[in-house]
Amino acid sequence: MAQSPKQEFALPDPEALQRDDARRKEPAEQSAEGSVAEVLARNHDQLMQGDGVVMVGEGEDEIGRPAIVVGVKSRQQLAGVPRQIEGVRVMGWVVGEVDALGNPPRR
């Protein structure tokens, strides 16, 4: 039986990890057209007019990068949420019905 070559494991460079972490914690990632807040401000009204959209705001994607968050009533309405706007990632969330005034649901 032939022995397989020895595999070596290298620990990550702590300085590289700190640089990556610092980049992830930047307040607002810049797109070609501006910050997440600026892109959201320009597109807020159009996003709110989407089918089933109940909220839009700033948030983070799966790995902590700044993104635009769009909340919709049902899973089927996620298909209408764009993946990206002006170079900024858009995250669609199913949040259901939203009533800021606390009124009982209509039947």
Characterization of the model:
With 107 residues, the protein is an alpha+beta fold. It contains two helices and six strands. A four-stranded mixed beta sheet has the order 3-4-6-5, covered by helices on one side. A hairpin with a 2-residue loop joins strand 5 and strand 6 (88-94). The radius of gyration is 21 Å and the shape is elongated.
What order do the helices and strands follow?
Answer: HEEHEEEE
- How many strand units? 6
CATH class of the domain at 32-94: Alpha Beta
Strand order of the largest sheet: 3-4-6-5
CATH architecture assignment of the domain at 32-94? 2-Layer Sandwich
Low-pLDDT residue intervals, each spanning 5 or more residues: none
Q: Do you know the CATH topology of the domain at 32-94?
A: GMP Synthetase, Chain A, domain 3
Rounded mean pLDDT is 81
The helical percent reads 10-25%
Instruction: Compute the separation of the termini in Å.
Output: 73 Å
Taking all Cα atoms into account, the compactness measure Rg is: 21 Å
Total of DSSP H or I helical runs spanning 4+ residues: 2
- Our estimate of the beta-strand percent is 25-35%
| Helix/strand structural class | alpha+beta
Overall geometric form: elongated
Largest sheet: 4 strands, mixed
What's the SSE blueprint?
Elements: H1 14-24, E1 30-31, E2 34-35, H2 36-48, E3 53-60, E4 66-72, E5 84-85, E6 88-94
Parallel strand pairs: 4-6
Antiparallel strand pairs: 1-2, 3-4, 5-6
